[in-house]
Amino acid sequence: MYMRLRSLVLSAYNALFARAVEKLFFHQLVTKTNNFGKSNWLGKPIWQNTFDLWIAQETIYEIKPSLIIECGTNRGGSAYFYAQLFDLMGTDGKVVSVDIEKLHDLSHPRVTYLIGSSASEEIASQIREMANQVSGPVLVILDSDHSEDHVAKELALYAHMTTVGSYCLVQDGIIDELFMFRKGRPGPLPAIEKFLTKHPEFEIDHERCERFLVTHHPKGWLKRIK
Ligand SMILES: C[S@@+](CC[C@H](N)C(=O)[O-])C[C@H]1O[C@@H](n2cnc3c(N)ncnc32)[C@H](O)[C@@H]1O
Predict the structure, then answer these.
(1) Looking at the predicted structure, is the pLDDT value of residue 2 above 90?
(2) One domain for residues 147 and 190
(3) Least crowded by CB within 10 Å, which of 13, 114, 148, 189?
């Protein structure tokens, strides 16, 4: 009895200790990299946690989307990265990326850049039309305004465009977890949690979220299961 209790206490302690080390490391990593704000993909600025970008690459290879819908173009590196993965895979994939402002002069034959709010009906209807035109998988990536209200609007407008078996990735739930991002709260996590209570057709792919221990997108990989 004593041995069993001792081993329970030890494993709880180890789990807590491991979580504290992960958080500390993540805090240092975000500080050191200026929140990954200076990363590049083949010379193009891309604002993504490198661990998360690797998961995105694996997911894109696995799903082989015909269309990636990206909210939040910024300086264009992520849309460019997704388009070049399609080039490497030799598939028919396209990307549509929307931002409220144009912050780049990139172009790629697979990418359609839209300017406007992702929460506007005007933008959503253009994207809906593109999603209706493809016969293969659709992957949705929400990386624009990370406030709860805006993410909730994007989930309402775009999540249903995700095809069964594919994903809606809600980025930057870390805002609700890491103290240094507290000014951006409430962020994506409450929007995800509320969305999931009404949408049993989606579930969190925890393994995908937690593979590299640290992630900007806790609970962010929402798999459409039906
Ligand atoms: C985190 S950055 C996107 C980073 C980009 N995906 C990358 O990986 O390099 C967020 C972007 O969302 C844009 N944004 C903010 N509010 C928006 C809205 N309502 N609709 C569309 N884009 C918005 C900002 O202008 C900003 O460029």
Answers:
(1) no
(2) yes
(3) 13
